Every structure is written in structure tokens, then in C-alpha cells.
Amino acid sequence: MGTPSDEWPVRSATRATAGAPGRMNEPGPLSAPERSCPVCDQHEADALWTKGVLRAVRCRRCTMIYARPVAQEFASGEYYARSAVTYQLSPDKLEGDFAPVRFERELRLFRARCRGGAVLDVGCSTGGFLSQLCQRWPGAYTVVGTDVASAALDHAERRGIPVVRRAFADPAFSPQRFDAVTFWAVLEHLDQPRACLRRAAQVLRPGGHGFILVPNARSLAVRLLGSRYRYVMPEHVNYFSPSTLRRFVGLEPDFRLVALSSTHFNPVVLWQDLVWRREAVPEAERAALLRRTTGWKQHRLLAPARWVYALLERALGRAMLADNLVAVLQRRGAASPDAFCG
């Protein structure tokens, strides 16, 4: 059990009626109700959050927060195949995802560790990150994306991104070896995240890097809002804190943890979720907000506000209170002399 300082704000939301606007729908079939902790594999856990169809528990042994049970549509990927059409491919989401500033933090972090080579983006969606990587450093990288959502992969291919249409954890995924594997906002969605961590170690060359970005379960937003925070949602089935993410990546002996940091802060989301008591934010509204915020980041007249915002985000990051956590891993073993990542 955690110390008192590790306690989490507990909030409950009333159960939604199916299909109500701005609400979480009733679940389909559920996975095994006794899902074990994705970090320490123990079953003993205490109820923490109830929000719509989400039932989140906290592991008594390692304090990891995770959904139990998980709706089958999330475990199988069926939900993401369906939502790709309504959300990932919506005009607002595409405009936001392909804006030049959309992946600026991820690109800066990635570029510092990997200057070229073969890159695999797991959960690439419509290909926004890989597209930016190729546009900014033409010829430096060969890229491949994979996702469970075929419609999103179709769009990525139309943007010139090669894709693999096979589950990443499948042993027959790809014979190729990579210099870098990225999981940008992916592991929080996976019923069995450890299988993907193992697979990443298998497909990386010695000395190559893995990059993991997940929501921060100890962020300022979660501390203030608890389950009222919009990203406490049924499709997020894992909620990592700095300590549980560190422990999680330590499960794979072929990886060493190079860096663990906290990044991103959206004050608009925090303000809206503080003021508006809604169980869920519709996908269309989330996509529209992404489009607006990426537009604000590019507006010349807002430069002074962006400077203040950057200072605030940096301060929250240093305190490990920003919205997301980022772990940088390195594959153990001697890198080849011509390795790009090392």
C-alpha cells in the first residue's frame, strides 16, 4: 500500500444512459472481471473510480490504477476501428494532427536520441507523427506505422506512410529490425501492455530506443479533478504514475530506462473540466479543441502568452505534475558502429 501522500482523489460519476449526449454509453461484453494488475500481475485491488462504464481499481501491491473489467470492444480493438471514422478522420482532428506544432515536444525528444534510421510508430493512427518526422528531416529516416484502425491506416498510406496491418504483439508482426519504436499515447489503451513492451525489445536493434508517452495519473489535473478529468475514460484502461511507469518498464530485462519526464499541459482542458460537470466530452468537441489549440500555438499575436505558458509547463514538468509522462528506453546490447540511435 502507498503512503498517505500516494492517496488518490476519489470521485464518482453517475451512470449514463446509453447514447445520452456527452455521456458514456453502456458497455458491450466485458473481458475477464479478474484482470490482474498490468504491472505486478497481482489481483488484490481496491475500487477507486466509477465513471460511466469505467470501473478503475488501485493495486494494493504497487498502486497501479487500471480498469477492471475491460469492455471487450476496447480489448479487441473493435472500438478503435469504429472510432477512426468518426474521430480520427474528422476534419478537425486531421487538421490538428497534421499541424506543424502538433508533435513538437515528441519530435524534440525523439530527435535528441535518434538522428536517423528505421522507425516504427505503434498506434500511428493517421500518420501525423511520422509525416512530420519525414518532412522535417527528409531522407534521415525510413518509417513504418501500425494501428488496429484500418481506416486510419488508409489515410496514413495516402499521406505516403508505409504501414503494417498486423497486431504488433503478434510474433509474425515483421521480420524487420528498427532503430526506434514509439508508443505515443498507446499503452493506456492496451489490455495487455506488457506484451507490447516485450515485442518492442524484440524488434529493436541493440542500442536502439523506445519512446513511451502516457497520461500522468499524478498530474495536477488528476489531483484536482479525480475522475472528473476528461481523460479518465473507458478507453483508457491503464493509468500510470511516475513510480508505476518506472516499475512497468523495468519488467523487460532487455531495456534500460534512460529518462523519465513529465510534459504537456492544457489549461483549457483543466478549466473546462473544473467548471463543466460532464461525465464525458464528445469526440467532436475534443477534436475541435485540438484544432483551436494548435491554431493558437501558431498565432503570432499570442507569442507573449505562449512564453508564459511554456514557463508554467516547464515548472509542472519539473515537479512531475504535467499532463503526460514520457519514458525513454534503450535496448541493451552493443550497438553496431553505424547505428543512428545511441
Set down the secondary structure blueprint.
Blueprint: E1 45-51, E2 54-59, E3 65-67, H1 72-76, H2 78-88, H3 91-97, H4 104-113, E4 117-122, H5 128-136, E5 141-146, H6 150-158, E6 163-164, E7 178-184, H7 193-203, E8 204-215, H8 220-225, E9 238-239, H9 242-249, E10 255-263, H10 267-275, H11 283-298, H12 303-318, E11 324-331
Parallel strand pairs: 4-5, 4-7, 5-6, 7-8
Antiparallel strand pairs: 1-2, 2-3, 3-9, 8-11, 10-11
Helix pairs in contact: 3-11
Description:
The structure is a single chain. With 342 residues, this protein is of the alpha/beta class. It has one domain: 3-Layer(aba) Sandwich (Rossmann fold), CATH 3.40.50.150. Helix content is 34%, strand content 20%. Strands 6-5-4-7-8-11-10 form a seven-stranded mixed β-sheet, sandwiched between helices. Helix 3 packs parallel to helix 11. The chain is globular, with a radius of gyration of 19 Å. The protein starts with 44 loop residues before the first strand and ends in an 11-residue tail after the last strand. The model is unreliable at 1-27 (pLDDT under 50).
